[in-house]
Specification:
The protein is an alpha+beta fold and 477 residues long. It has three domains: 9-116, Immunoglobulin-like, CATH 2.60.40.2950; 126-369, SGNH hydrolase (Rossmann fold, 3-Layer(aba) Sandwich), CATH 3.40.50.1110; 377-475, Sandwich (Immunoglobulin-like). The chain has eight helices and 28 strands. It has helices at 127-130, 171-174, 186-194, 203-214, 245-255, 277-294, 316-329, 354-369, and strands spanning 9-11, 20-25, 30-33, 39-48, 56-63, 66-67, 74-78, 83-92, 94-103, 109-125, 133-134, 145-148, 154-156, 198-200, 218-222, 262-266, 302-306, 336-340, 377-383, 387-393, 399-401, 408-411, 417-418, 421-426, 433-438, 447-450, 460-462, 471-475. Helix 4 (203-214) crosses helix 8.
């Protein structure tokens, strides 16, 4: 489904076009970030004839063909010698709006629509944020959700959000020697787009869920690129501009107004190797800190996904090292939260499925809403006779699971799994404790893992469907 709206329009243009025209400012389909008072501002600027200098510039705002209360025609500026510029301020969150401008004494009214005031979210990371889900049964677009696409154009948001082929930032189409040396255009671009069968991601489901809950429009800023590492996302490369991922993200942030509601991040698979994994935590922490400094928002919300399943048995220890670093980092910052995709279906050996992105979008929306705990987090494990009790914090309501509870293992001091557990269940009478019944003797230095291996089957969550992330080793007290 494609949404169609009227674009930039000139009405009653009896005077020559050069007498009064728009040359910059907000554009059709644009979402402007709302401020703390739930309002935003639209700016327009343009050229005007010399004889209009000193004349009042007036504006009004319409929605659904009706004037928005308090926004009928009023003076918002004065024409200069050959140019004009106006800000229409305190526009309530919502839309779509139509902004009209006129200059006293000039023939014609200029208009831009649709315009919205809402929340902007940066989408960054690698392939599971870029989106590699099957382009089947994708979410239906909404007149409340738009995207600043990778060609720097505001468009209705629809899958796939990430289109690397004609991106403005050169990193996306020249990072490998075998890829094109210039962005695609014309017939080549059309063919590339038509050939796509993958590309569904989490950005659109997240946005649709936020709109459903709040009614506030969402603008998405897709900036992810599959297969990329923390080194490629290094803030130290921002001076390279769009030739680097971080520099391109920062450029796009400024291009949409220099203020956003938050960042959604999904990355880490490329760093799950012996060389990169040991440094992952420090690099990820630095990224979060740098984004907040460079975006000039010290408490900018930053929500991310713990890497999930991979149908593969290599680099297991490094995979877990990245997962554990992600779990630990969420406690170091304010307005930083994590959820996980470890329990979700895939559309191939490593990428989240289109249907599962709907679930992941709801989980990220829960984090953004801030009303729920992030989900079960391991507190401690302790030996009690022939059972190990694992206690959790951050549980919404009580622990739940579908089918037979699964995913816990006991490991010895060397980290090797020891087959001891014969039953995993919720402790009767407790809302936050799992009971692991085992036979034999617990090894010295025993540790508990949840989700060991790269393709585990896990099903522990809470009543808000916030899942338990992969964790371990957790010492058995």
């Amino acid at each position: 489904m494609r949404l169609v709206f009227p674009l930039l329009a000139a009405l009653a243009a009896a005077a020559p076009a050069q007498t009064f025209e728009i040359t910059g400012g907000v554009v059709p389909y644009q979402v402007v970030q709302r401020e703390a008072d739930n309002r935003g501002a639209f700016r327009l600027e343009g050229n005007s004839a010399k004889q209009l200098a000193g004349r009042p510039v007036e504006a009004r705002l319409l929605r659904g063909g009706l004037t928005v209360p308090g926004f009928d025609w009023r003076q918002v500026g004065t024409a200069g010698a050959e140019s004009w510029g106006v800000n229409l301020t305190r526009v309530p969150a919502g839309g779509p709006y139509r902004m009209e401008v006129r200059i006293t004494g000039a023939n014609g009214v200029l208009a831009v629509e649709p315009l919205l005031v809402g929340d902007l979210w940066m989408l960054a990371g690698q392939s599971n944020m870029q989106g590699v889900g099957d382009l089947k049964n994708v979410p239906v677009p909404s007149a409340q959700v738009y995207s600043f696409n990778m060609a720097d154009q505001w468009v209705p948001a629809e899958e796939p959000l990430h289109r690397l082929e004609d991106a403005v930032d050169s990193f996306h189409w020249r990072r490998n020697s075998g890829e094109p040396k210039a962005p695609l255009s014309g017939e080549a671009l059309r063919k590339a787009i038509a050939a796509r069968v993958k590309g569904a991601g989490v950005g659109l489901p997240f946005a649709l869920e936020r709109v459903r809950r709040t009614g506030v429009p969402i603008g998405l800023i897709p900036s992810a690129h599959g297969g990329t590492s923390m080194d490629q996302w290094s803030p130290a490369l921002k001076g390279e501009g769009g030739a680097s991922l971080y520099g391109g993200m920062l450029r796009r942030f400024l291009a949409v107004g220099g203020r956003i509601a938050g960042v959604l991040w999904y990355q880490g698979e490329s760093d799950a190797n012996p060389k990169a994994a040991p440094a992952f935590a420090a690099k990820f922490q630095s990224l979060i800190e740098s984004v907040r400094v460079d975006f000039r928002q010290p408490d900018l919300p930053f929500y991310y996904v713990q890497i999930g399943r991979h149908v593969n048995d290599t680099n297991i220890d490094e995979w877990h090292a990245v997962q554990d670093a992600q779990r630990r980092i969420e406690g170091l910052f304010r307005n930083v939260g994590m959820t996980t995709a470890i329990d979700l279906e895939l559309d191939d050996g490593i990428h989240v499925g289109t249907d599962s992105y709907l679930v992941l979008g709801q989980r990220l929306a829960n984090l953004a809403e801030g009303k729920l705990a992030p989900g079960p987090r391991p507190l401690r494990a302790r030996l009690d006779g022939s059972r190990v009790l694992v206690e959790f914090s951050s549980v919404n309501g009580r622990l739940v699971h579908s089918g037979r509870l699964n995913g816990f293992t006991i490991h010895n001091a060397e980290g090797k799994p020891v087959p001891l557990i014969f039953r995993q269940r919720l402790l009767p009478g407790s809302s936050n404790t799992v009971e692991l019944l085992f036979g034999g003797k617990l090894p010295e230095g025993a540790r508990v893992h949840y989700g060991y291996g790269k393709d585990p089957y896990l099903n522990l969550a809470d009543e808000a469907n916030m899942p338990c992330p992969v964790f371990g080793p957790l010492r058995v007290e």
